[in-house]
Write a structure and sequence with these properties.
The chain contains twelve helices and eleven strands. It has about 425 residues and is of the alpha+beta class. A hairpin with a 2-residue loop joins strand 10 and strand 11. The protein is elongated, with a radius of gyration of 31 Å.
Amino acid sequence: MLHLIIKNLWSRRYRNGWLLAELIIVSIVIWVLTDPIIVTTHDRNLPTGITEDGMYRLTLATLSPKSSRFDANEDSVEARVANVRRMVSRLQSYNDIQYVTLQFENVGPFCSSSWSNSIAPDTLYSYSFMIMFFEPQTDFFRTFGFEEVEGQTNEELDQLAFGNKEVAMTTHPMPGVPSLGYQHYDTKQDTLQWIAKATIGKLRMRNGMQPQNVLLFPNKPGKADIPENVSIVFRTKPMVDEIQFLQRFRPWAEKELRIGNLYMRGVKSYREVIEENDEENTVNYTYRVNLLMGAFFLISLCLGVSGTFWMQTRSRREEVGVMKSFGARSGYIIRMLLGEGVVLATLATVVGCLLYLQYALKEGLYTNMWDKSEILPVYWVNVFPLHFLGVSLIVWIILLIVVSIGIYIPAQSISRITPVNALRDE
């Protein structure tokens, strides 16, 4: 049958040439539309690196100095720190709460602020790191429920004492570099900057983006402005229903978490924090726009291409009638027509993708990461050959489906026609 398919395509080469040119253009357009959608969908479905179920974030506020309840004696740094400690203690004693920790500078997974730095282990390469802060020997690691790596459990990490220049970091920070025990030196002065005493799994700091390298520096509440840059994160015990918990917890917190000049501004589940970050993140706004635009243009392209092949297939009634008169079965005719479409779609995809490859080699493929130093080679979308071949395969499948629809439905109809009717109609 392959020989007959090629013969038919060649005999109609002038008409098929226009079809092929149209399919090449369509394949390039599909590449442009689907690449951002595929990459962002991949990134959005990667693990967050934390266990967000049962996790909550409590923000603080302070009374205005003009308030009648304001106490000037409770407004010193020491008083605010002591009052935050008392809040943490009361939360730890709450029946449904298991772990409590502090979050500093509003930086962390899916928070509105972000701190970053770069590390240059040598003069050739530089790697980007996001920054977090934590208070050692609290419930920090168990509260966030980080992915446990390199034989260290979150419980063990919460018990570690961090000395001067000792930090925690995400695993595999740089290619070929071990994370646990890694020592970072200032390449200009050859002085030790920090040493990694603990490791956790990769973290997604921004929604819609890939997990990144993160450095976690020890901190104390007295070093951060309270309440502006200090919030409380806690985790409930297993099997505690979120809705029922918040219904019980909010009235209690509004009364009991009013200490000195500090009080609870609000509390929300970490899933809500992630959803808010999702709304604020430009990557996700672009993703939704790409989905809508991509769906619109893909449907338009599919209708146009399917319509073209529909008309082409319908115009071959006489040829089908002749084949039927020589004993060709309907299934054979349908397979032959589909085979021609598959060959055209495959050839168009190969040419279209090779043309797009010239652009991609110069400008690069789509990525959501802000800086090339953030891109980690552990995901297939970050490896150029795999990324290009993967998206090209999807483009080919989409084109095959569109062409097959445009051929199969009319092919079914004309394959049932009798030779006499087909020749008479012509």
